[in-house]
Design brief:
Elements: H1 6-22, H2 24-28, H3 40-58, H4 63-77, H5 80-97, H6 105-122, H7 131-148, H8 154-175, H9 177-182, H10 187-203, E1 228-236, H11 246-256, E2 257-264, E3 268-275, H12 278-286, E4 289-298, H13 305-316, E5 320-328, H14 331-339, E6 344-347, H15 356-365, E7 368-374, H16 381-389, E8 395-398, H17 404-412, H18 420-432, E9 435-441, E10 446-448, E11 451-453, E12 458-462, E13 465-470, H19 473-484, E14 491-497, H20 502-515, E15 519-527, E16 532-536
Parallel strand pairs: 5-6, 5-7, 7-8, 14-15
Antiparallel strand pairs: 1-3, 1-4, 2-3, 9-12, 9-16, 10-11, 12-13, 14-16
Helix pairs in contact: 1-3, 1-4, 1-10, 3-4, 3-5, 4-5, 5-6, 5-16, 6-7, 7-8, 7-10, 8-10, 11-12, 15-16, 17-18, 19-20
């Protein structure tokens, strides 16, 4: 093959997307931290699916139109840092394509190089040993190959790129010691390789189709989309069957939608509900096993018109000087942000990163001149910044909050009577004064920073570092607090997670009060994954 036209490019994209979707759990499993929220593969899959879905909906076979539509779809659908970087790679490819109706091997090489350059520019402090390294080295090898073989076919060029991408991926542990210690390669780089493998499969005449992957395609509409009927059948895996709690699961479902019909059997569950966020429902469930059947149907016509009217009114709102948007998971935490002057809470967090479009939609719903955005997670900051760049009619200030306690403290220190810069400085100062601790459990055996961790161990995370490993939840929690406290500590915020009991929470609060001269604020956060989230100021 000498040229890539629109039809061929679209086929490559669909094959790459299907291959990534079919291998996303494998990519998720490469996440270094053994917490139950490994989501790089899921984020990249949802991001790429959004882009390819937009391409399919366009119905176009024009290369410039496909590249532009894909770029926009990836931009708005980007989730997590890996998803944002992936969107920037294809944004660079789109920028190179411009109005070209075909790409030669040499031009395809130039497009990939431009994608690599743009991805690096999107990251404030690029880290080698990641997806950035893989795209840079693969595209550089492609250029080298074409310079040595100017008459090479598209297939030959793609083989050279994919070979180097795989080799680069295998070298990532040598560049990032944390990968080497955990005996894994970079998850983002692995996701990119899955996309490139799909490209090659299509060019070789064996495209990866939806029928050849293990999971059925999932709808990825964002929170502001029309309503959906989400139905699935899921079979428990042996590891998580015992941990399934019907009451807790049902409560989580009721927070995401209505008309819940849940049937629980010994070997699995079947579910039907109406929701605005089917992606969240699917990710909530998939931690317990494998989907056997998934069906998502747009039910806009079935929705109560008054609810749609309420949504429309919410989007307009009352004009004002300031607005605040926060990202959070857990009904209690969402309520706290609302009490602290937050106008809109985007559902999401460590277990489900919201997309650029989710955040941009929330910004649009707040009728304010200046809008502060609190991502509350390091893996959401890039998507928030991207949402700010696509918003043209408002002044959007993304504060780099990396945890819920930081976000709450920023809200408390906001003063609607002050000017923008004064508020920004006060909120940033508050963020800097917050230390965050989290208690969760390990889902696999691994080694990090010289620490041996076994599945089922409770871990205490101090900011981003695992500092405590214990078999007992309360022992781990108390030891974490001891690590966090110092003579300057004045306020402790204790957020109870969905899997912690009230008795455990009360006991931990009592431990703090008995041992430290601080004010303790205890709240039922209801957050998933983390038994306790602790903020110390």
């Amino acid at each position: 093959m000498e040229k890539i036209n629109g039809i061929i490019f679209k086929g490559m994209l669909e094959s790459g997307c299907n291959n990534l979707n079919g291998n996303k759990k494998e990519v998720d499993a490469l996440n270094v931290f053994p917490v139950p929220d490994g989501d790089t593969g899921t984020n990249m899959s949802l991001t790429f699916t959004n882009g390819v879905s937009e391409v399919k909906k366009s119905g176009s076979d024009s290369l410039p139109t496909i590249a532009k539509t894909l770029s926009r779809g990836l931009l708005m659908g980007a989730r997590g840092n890996s998803g944002v970087i992936l969107s920037q790679i294809f944004r660079g490819i789109y920028q190179y394509i411009g109005e070209k109706t075909e790409l030669s091997s040499n031009e395809f090489s130039e497009a990939l190089l431009n994608g690599s350059k743009l991805a690096y520019k999107a990251v404030m402090r690029p880290t080698e040993g990641t997806i950035l390294t893989v795209i840079r080295e693969a595209s550089a090898k492609g250029e080298e190959f074409i310079n040595a073989n100017p008459e090479a076919s598209i297939e030959e060029f793609m083989n050279a790129v994919l070979d180097e991408a795989n080799a680069s991926l295998e070298r990532t542990p040598e560049l990032l010691p944390v990968l080497k210690e955990a005996h894994v390669v970079d998850s983002g780089g692995a996701g990119l390789v899955k996309v490139l493998e799909g490209f090659k499969a299509f060019l070789d005449g064996n495209p990866v189709t939806e029928e050849t992957v293990n999971e059925e395609k999932k709808e990825t509409k964002s929170e502001h989309s029309s309503g959906y009927r989400c139905e699935f059948i899921l079979t428990f895996d042996a590891k998580h069957a015992k941990s399934f709690n019907e009451d807790r699961f049902r409560k989580s479902l009721e927070a995401l939608g209505n008309k819940v019909q849940l049937v629980v059997k010994e070997d699995g569950i079947s579910l039907s509900l109406h929701t605005m966020t089917p992606g969240e429902v699917l990710m909530l469930a998939e931690r317990y096993g494998e989907f056997k059947k998934v069906q998502i149907e747009n039910i806009q016509d079935d929705l109560n018109p008054s609810l749609l009217e309420e949504e429309k009114e919410e989007e307009v709102g009352e004009a004002k000087e300031y607005g605040i948007i926060a990202v959070a998971a857990g009904e209690g935490i969402k309520q706290l942000f609302t009490e602290y002057r937050t106008d809109y809470v985007v559902s999401g967090g460590q277990t489900m990163n919201p997309s650029t479009e989710d955040i941009a939609s929330a910004i649009a719903k707040v009728n304010a001149k200046h809008v502060f955005v609190l991502p509350n997670n390091s893996n959401i900051i890039m998507a928030a910044n991207q949402a700010a760049t696509v918003t043209e009619d408002k002044d959007v200030i993304v504060l780099p909050t990396k945890s819920v306690p930081q976000g709450l403290s920023a809200c408390i220190n906001f003063n609607p009577e002050d000017d923008v810069e004064t508020n920004k400085e006060a909120m940033e100062e508050a963020i800097a004064n917050v230390k965050t601790g989290q208690i969760t459990y390990a889902i696999k055996d691994t080694s990090i920073d010289g620490k041996e961790i076994h599945a089922g161990d409770y871990m205490g995370l101090f900011d981003k570092d695992i500092v405590i490993i214990e078999k007992d939840k309360m022992t781990a929690s108390k030891q974490l607090i001891e690590k966090m406290m110092d003579e300057d500590s004045e306020i402790v915020t204790l957020l109870k997670g969905e899997d912690a009991t009230q008795e455990e929470c009360d006991a931990l609060a009592e431990f703090i009060e008995e041992n430290y001269d601080v004010d303790v604020d205890v709240q039922d956060g209801g957050q998933p994954v983390y038994s306790f989230v602790i903020g110390v100021e």
